[in-house]
């Protein structure tokens, strides 16, 4: 069994922040905005609509900032966010490049809204490393919903059994397997090639 496509998560896999607190660790020091306040005023009430493409990031962020941080522009916050959440795992990218060179297609399968999806694809140049990206705001579903995986597979053109997937969350791995994908939890401790070989062997043994 040889997989035709490897699907890869972004945050926690391709992008791994060196600080476990993430991109907002020094937000209050740098921009004067409490991460807890941003969470309660913006992310908690608005993120579900933004991440599923039902609302634009700026459409929801601008009025929130006008209330909680009137001196901070949405442009400044978004730039700070994206630039501080852009630590690419070069070791994984090298492993993926070797797999791609063998003829396997590489796709991203990720929970993103439209602006950051464009940023990681273009500004971070992931388009040079991957053949396609499937993301939540475009699909209208987020992981671990089964609909996310079904929509991503349909857009990719690959059958579920032709796909191998890595993610840093077990719930997403389980959901992918539930849709017929082969999948493994990624924590960077083992070579990607080993995980793929194991999954292919397991599939042959069924």
Q: What are the main properties of this structure?
A:
alpha/beta; five-stranded parallel beta sheet; 2 domains; 206 residues; Rossmann fold
Structure, briefly:
The protein is of the alpha/beta class and 206 residues long.
Q: What topology emerges from the helices and strands here?
A:
Elements: E1 5-8, H1 27-31, H2 35-51, H3 57-68, H4 74-84, H5 90-101, E2 105-110, H6 114-123, E3 132-135, H7 136-139, H8 146-156, E4 163-167, H9 170-178, E5 182-185, H10 192-204
Oligomeric form: single chain
CATH topology of the largest domain: Rossmann fold
Strand order of the largest sheet: 3-2-1-4-5
Summarize the helix and strand pattern as letters. Answer: EHHHHHEHEHHEHEH
Structure, described:
The protein has 206 residues and is of the alpha/beta class. It folds into two domains: 5-16 and 87-204, 3-Layer(aba) Sandwich (Rossmann fold); 27-84, no CATH class. The protein is 50% helix and 11% strand. It has ten helices and five strands; from the N terminus they run E-H-H-H-H-H-E-H-E-H-H-E-H-E-H. The chain has a five-stranded parallel beta sheet, sandwiched between helices. Helix 2 (35-51) runs antiparallel to helix 3. The chain is elongated and about 60 Å long. The N and C termini lie close together (11 Å). 32% of the residues are buried. The mean pLDDT is 96.
């Amino acid at each position: 069994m040889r997989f035709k496509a490897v699907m890869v998560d972004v945050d926690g896999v391709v992008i791994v922040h060196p600080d476990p607190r993430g991109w907002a660790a020094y937000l209050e020091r740098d921009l004067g905005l409490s991460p807890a306040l941003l969470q309660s005023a913006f992310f908690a009430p608005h993120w579900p609509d933004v991440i599923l493409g039902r609302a634009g990031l700026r459409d929801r962020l601008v009025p929130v900032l006008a209330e909680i941080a009137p001196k901070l522009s949405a442009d400044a916050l978004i730039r700070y966010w994206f630039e501080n959440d852009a630590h690419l795992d070069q070791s994984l990218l090298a492993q993926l490049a070797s797999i791609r060179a063998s003829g396997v297609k590489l796709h991203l399968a990720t929970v993103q809204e439209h602006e950051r999806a464009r940023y990681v694809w273009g500004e971070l140049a992931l388009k040079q490393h991957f053949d396609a990206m499937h993301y939540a705001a475009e699909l209208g579903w987020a992981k671990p919903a089964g609909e996310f995986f079904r929509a991503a597979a349909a857009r990719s053109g690959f059958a579920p059994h032709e796909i191998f997937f890595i993610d840093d969350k077990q719930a997403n791995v389980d959901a992918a397997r539930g849709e017929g994908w082969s999948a493994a939890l990624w924590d960077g401790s083992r070579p990607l090639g080993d995980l793929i070989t194991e999954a292919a062997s397991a599939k042959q043994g069924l």
